[in-house]
Automatic annotation (TrEMBL):
<dbReference type="Pfam" id="PF00903">
    <property type="entry name" value="Glyoxalase"/>
</dbReference>
<protein>
    <submittedName>
        <fullName>VOC family protein</fullName>
    </submittedName>
</protein>
<dbReference type="InterPro" id="IPR037523">
    <property type="entry name" value="VOC_core"/>
</dbReference>
<feature type="domain" description="VOC">
    <location>
        <begin position="4"/>
        <end position="124"/>
    </location>
</feature>
<dbReference type="InterPro" id="IPR029068">
    <property type="entry name" value="Glyas_Bleomycin-R_OHBP_Dase"/>
</dbReference>
<dbReference type="InterPro" id="IPR004360">
    <property type="entry name" value="Glyas_Fos-R_dOase_dom"/>
</dbReference>
């Protein structure tokens, strides 16, 4: 089985509040939305926010508290870490940990979205190595991008791959 992740969906309490956080904070534009869920097309995966009670019903399991986990978003500099954390807080997020330099290197801070899901905003000196280590192939992206997968999408993926793999 290939190592692949296609969709991440977080259970949320308020769709409008969540959409403001991800739209105004990260600057993401929805590719699909209805009264229960919003999907965003990211770099090779789809990210969804779904009303928690509806998500729990879909999974046929009771809604639970927020588990100890984090999502991460890497940026290009230390300055971008602080700027994005501030922007996310202004868009309804809660700063969990102000940006600082951990002992293992880099620069990071944590912000919770309006439903308490933790996001690490980070910059690392080894980001080029990290990019290469996690870069999906275009064929992987072509098969994992169900939304807007026309010719123009494939051309954008090819261009993105070349940019991603540039030394």
């Amino acid at each position: 089985m290939p190592q692949a992740l296609s969709v991440i969906t977080l259970g949320i309490a308020d769709l409008a509040r969540s959409k403001r956080f991800y739209g105004e904070g990260f600057g993401w534009a929805p590719v699909f939305e209805n009264d229960e869920i919003v999907f965003y097309q990211l770099n090779g995966i789809v990210f969804g926010t779904w009303l928690a009670d509806k998500l729990a019903a879909d999974m046929q399991r009771p809604a639970a508290g927020v588990p100890a986990s984090t999502l991460a978003h890497n940026v290009g500099s230390e300055e971008e870490v602080t700027a994005l954390i501030d922007r996310l807080a202004a868009a309804g997020g809660t700063i969990l940990r102000a940006a600082d330099a951990p002992a293992h290197g880099g620069f990071r801070g944590y912000v919770a979205d309006p439903d308490g899901h933790a996001w690490e905003i980070a910059w690392n000196r080894v980001s080029r190595w990290t990019k290469r280590a996690t870069s999906p192939s275009v064929s992987d992206l072509r098969t994992s991008v169900p939304i807007g997968s026309g010719n123009s999408c494939v051309k954008r993926l090819d261009r993105a791959r070349r940019e991603f793999e540039r030394p």
